[in-house]
Design brief:
56% helix, five-stranded parallel beta sheet, globular, alpha/beta, single chain, Rossmann fold
Length: 232
């Protein structure tokens, strides 16, 4: 089990060292171990004090970035990263379930998915949360989805927008042919892409494809399509 100092936990969680020491005494939790109980307490505290979205932006994503660096440096094993990601995944799903799918704008229909060989689900789930919070109608096809299933899904769902992400996928092959095929077979849809491969490769974007590579840009875009399609 990986060990953290109080200062490490303060940096990773955003919770002050003094508070962490109080929690350690109050809950009998070893703050030097990565345990689910402790991690849930820290996350719940952040969500209750900052709100869910700010916790994702200010705590969760920086934490995941640091864990990735620590894994690459050999300070932790991949199981630790998987352990943390799974806890965060459950938190996001709880927030999605709280929102529900009633009273969504039926004319803002969004299909979201990860392509084949892409399995980082947290960003996809957070995108689903943001869309639902803005009352868009969403279908989430999940991870590692073949393109043929995407095309069938957007026709069945009558999606107006397709969102996807490219980080690990297409790291050893060009993304351009995939984008061309997706765009050519989705002439009535706006395709929104993000992820590392969208900036690391020299792409010639089809007219109906756009890159959005920050959470704030994504929120702004979603707000714009909601306002455009469903004026007050």
């Amino acid at each position: 089990m990986v060990a953290y100092s109080i200062k490490d936990l303060e940096s990773l969680s955003g919770v002050k060292a003094h508070t962490l020491r109080i929690w350690e005494k109050r809950y009998g939790i070893s703050m030097f171990e990565l345990c689910e109980t402790k991690f849930n307490i820290i996350l719940d505290h952040q969500i209750n004090s900052k709100g869910f979205e700010e916790t994702m932006n200010d705590v969760v994503y920086p934490l995941l970035d640091k864990l990735s660096i620590m894994w690459e440096a050999g300070s932790i094993k991949s199981v630790h990263e998987t352990f943390v990601s799974n806890i965060i995944r459950k938190k996001i799903i709880v927030q999605i379930d709280k929102l529900g799918r009633e009273n969504c704008f039926t004319n803002v229909r969004c299909l979201i998915y990860l392509p084949e060989n892409e399995s980082h689900e947290l960003s996809l789930l957070f995108l689903e949360y943001i869309l639902l919070k803005n009352k868009a109608k969403v279908i989430n096809l999940g991870t590692s989805v073949p393109l043929i299933d995407v095309l069938e899904g957007k026709n069945i769902f009558n999606a107006g927008y397709i969102f996807t992400l490219f980080n690990d996928s297409f790291s050893e092959s060009p993304l351009q042919p995939y984008l061309n095929e997706l765009a050519r077979n989705s002439p009535d849809q706006q395709v929104i892409i993000s992820g590392f491969q969208t900036t690391s490769q020299d792409l010639d974007l089809p007219p109906n494809v756009m890159i959005v590579n920050s959470i704030e840009q994504m929120k702004t875009f979603i707000g714009e399509i909601i306002n455009k399609s469903c004026p007050a």
